[in-house]
Amino acid sequence: MVARVHQTWRRSLQVRVVTITLVASSLLVGGFAYLIADKITSILLDNARTDVQQRVKSGATYAAKQVNLYGEPQEAQLQETIEGTVNYLAGGDPQQTSGVVVAITADGYPVIQTRTAPAANVQPLISPELRAAVAKGNVASQIRTGRLTGEPTKYLVYGSPVPTRFGQIELYYLVPLTRQDTTAADARATVVATGVALVVLLGLLAALVTRLVVNPVRVAARTAQRLSAGLLDQRMVVNGEDDLALLAASFNQMATNLQRQILRLEEMSRLQRRFTSDVSHELRTPLTTVRMAADLIFAERDEFDPAVARSAELLQAELDRFEELLTDLLEISRFDAGFAMLDAEPTDLVPVVHRVVERLSGLAERVGVPIELDLPGTPVIAEVDPRRVERVLRNLVGNAVEHGEARPVLITLGIDETAVAITVRDHGVGLKLGEEKLVFNRFWRADPSRARQTGGTGLGLSISLEDARLHGGWLEAWGAPGQGAQFRLTLPARAGDRLTTSPLRLVPADAALPFGGPRDGGPLAIGPGTGGALAIGPAPVEDGQRAEVRS
Fold first, then answer.
1. What is the CA radius of gyration of the chain?
2. For 522, phi and psi rounded to 5 degrees?
3. Neighbouring C-beta atoms of residue 258, cutoff 10 Å
4. DSSP sequence for 209-269
5. pLDDT 10s digits, 150-194
6. Exposure of 506 in the CB half-sphere (CA atoms within 13 A)
7. Is 380 exposed, middle or buried (0-12, 13-18, 19+ CB in 10 A)?
8. In sequence order, what are the residues at sequence separation of 6 or more whose Cβ sits closer than 8 angstroms to the Cβ of residue 14?
9. Is the pLDDT of residue 534 over 60?
């Protein structure tokens, strides 16, 4: 539930705007409601205090006049006079129901009994602090809650001294605040209801306004998704002449321009592929004729002058390279056109590796590069296209021998439950910083001035990459200056499975980390991005300098 709420919060702009509006308006309205309710309560209490103060003042004056007729507290008529005074101050009726209780006490004269109107025990509501303040001759007040005639009630208790000829007595007014509390409660309820209604209206208004803004944005997002999916004819509906309509019109214009450019690029790409394919095919016929003539000349070269014989050998070598170039161009054109097919079958990769090594052993002996094998003792079976896998290995091993610098080239074969992998490790000059992003580009060479030993066409790694992708596999490269390079081919053991890991490490165990690693301007890693696109980012620290190209 929490995850769903968090996901909704992250994905919905409308939910965030409405929620923030509701929270902010609730805090603001709540603060105003508290201030207003507190102000109303203060006003009601002040009015009650003012009224009671006037009554206490006039009551004390009246009581003093009545009691001053007596010089001693023991006089017989004094008690009756106090009782009559209390009844008069209470409204003339001892049973009055206004709720106001009037009491006269004489703490300094025990002979004078406390009189109240209406009759009630007021002692619990008159605190010792209030009695002490009044006894000192001050008018004092407090708010107390107690039970006099019925339910517990909040009372405003005022006390005032009443001077007499024989000393001082005390007059108390106990005024119930029930009406004030009811009025304050009604006011608070009204303020809260108004605040809630205002917050709800603000929320609805925010939802409406954000909906007017978010809906066109959502439509633009959906249209953009359809455009990215290849539906180039998708457009937004333009309504009105406001900013959102301008956004829709600009989006449509952008989409139209993109469609025009994409169609133009697709047409150019199609023409380029067609041109490459047509040229490759058209060159086959003259090449066949030239090949026949060159073979005849090459076969009779021993009868020619040494210079002419050498020319015949060069002609034969260049024709071989030219033929390989045409074959590679045709293969590239098939990949570009999407016509390449995979003929997968269960294949033991160990003999495939041995065939590649045997085919390149002559070149390796000529350049002084020993080839070492690290192969399992048991068959390594995988559902692959053996012709394409052998072609990939020929390219990788041939490049490793060519750049091996007379140092060993190690070929390792590994397998696990889901994948097979082959690594080709050389100890040559390696790859410079940034070259790992270019190694699989067509016709790219690390050192243009370096003479090729194998007479390659410059398309080998590009075709190898396409062969790996056709299998649903990975072709990855690692390299570091002075440490050589290692290429890793990883293929699913069963055709159609998705790769997640490789049985072999891409970075060799004997590779040393460059100083500072990737954080100090280190190597980049090229790996699979969303939708099969290439993603470029910093390589992991333990991988040194590497380039990964995955399908």
1. 50
2. -75, -170
3. 12
4. HHHHHHHHHHHHHHHHHHHHTT-TT--PPP-SSSHHHHHHHHHHHHHHHHHHHHHHHHHHH
5. 678 888 999 999 988 888 889 999 998 888 888 888 988 998 899
6. 25
7. buried
8. 207, 210, 211, 214
9. no
